[in-house]
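Quick check before the chapter quiz. The format below is the same one you will see on the exam, so make sure you can read both the input and the output lines.
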Amino acid sequence: MASSLMSTQCPAPVLDAALGQRVFARLHEIGFDGRGMTRPSYGEGENRAHALFESVAWEHGLEVRRDWAANLFITIPGQNRSLPAVMTGSHADTVPCGGNFDGAAGAVAGLLVLCAWARAGYRPERDTTLIVTRAEESVWFPISYLGSRTAFGLLDPALLDTPRSDDGTSLREHMLACGAQPELCGRASVLNAADIDCFVELHIEQGPVLLEADVPVGIVTGICGSTRYRSAVIHGQYAHSGATPRRFRSDAVMAGASMMMALHEAWRQVEAEGEEMTLTFGVCQTDPAQANFAAVPGRLELVIDIRSRNEDLLERMNGLVIEQARRVESDFNVTVDLGPRTRSTPAIMDAGLQAEAEKLAASMNIPVVSMASGAGHDAATFAGQGIPTEMLFVRNENGSHNPDESMEFDDFLYGVRLLEHLLRQRASRP
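Here is the expected output.
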């Protein structure tokens, strides 16, 4: 086989755009729920998406394996397999009623690169691997970067009992149903950071920065971390709306409103001081079975999501959340149960990879801008292991986590071309 392989200095292999379009179309068929895409983590849709990537890989003669948690690895072998590998990848699960490009774009991009190399007969100096992770979307299991964490052996076995949000069935049971081996958690062979040269993840942008800048590709400087309360509840007391004066009320909604406005004002002050963060209350609801027009609300459920690249700021804001919870308890005669806190650590992208990407983009006449990622990604797990890591964003209209994601295919190909050149430059090094 080696005699038929091209040298590492061969011209750029040709990307199969039609293959990419077919894979996206098939992913749409797999995930379409009547409005958007729904491929739950460790669910049938995610299984079928992984099977699709595996089938295309086999057709192109690529190596395929799965780890104990059913993460998928697709590899084109290097000439010196003892060298640290170059890696790329993303995920194939979605949020409920999401779009077809979040996560999937990065997985498809890596697949197109490896398939193009295989068709061209190009064999890199070192192994180059696409990982299609499981369960990146923590809406299903409240665990950040679940798939990539399992790949590095970072999952606490106690978390295998975590129920999935839609059906209450444990992560362990869902893993078993997908052919994974949760009994190997903590014992199976996992990725070793010393064996990885770098990790580069392509992803759609999930905000408007590239649209505003009118450029197709972003070079990411860092990934925000988060502090979250996913199941906070304010307990007050239901009472007649007309017969209960204010001084006798335990109004859960007013307590929540006061708490949220205080945190929002703190956010405004943070920005005025030149720091960056976001604050979101994505759920804020009364009990539909008991709340009504003529009753003082006795219960409010809410979620709190704070993100920043500054870990100290995240901790300060977390302290403020607790402080405000205690304040409204006193001011409004309520009880605030914040519930468990979940968090993820900010990640800084590798300066060398950023510089390489910028230089390559200039040589390819691809307009780029440098930017931060407000959303979390599997790349943060790789960076957290000390692996040189970079992300490439592709322009995408209408945001993300909704059915209206609108990535132009030409923009996608700009991103894939830059990814291919960057991976090949890294993989060709002896």
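If your answer matched, good. Residues 311-332 form the longest helix (22 residues).
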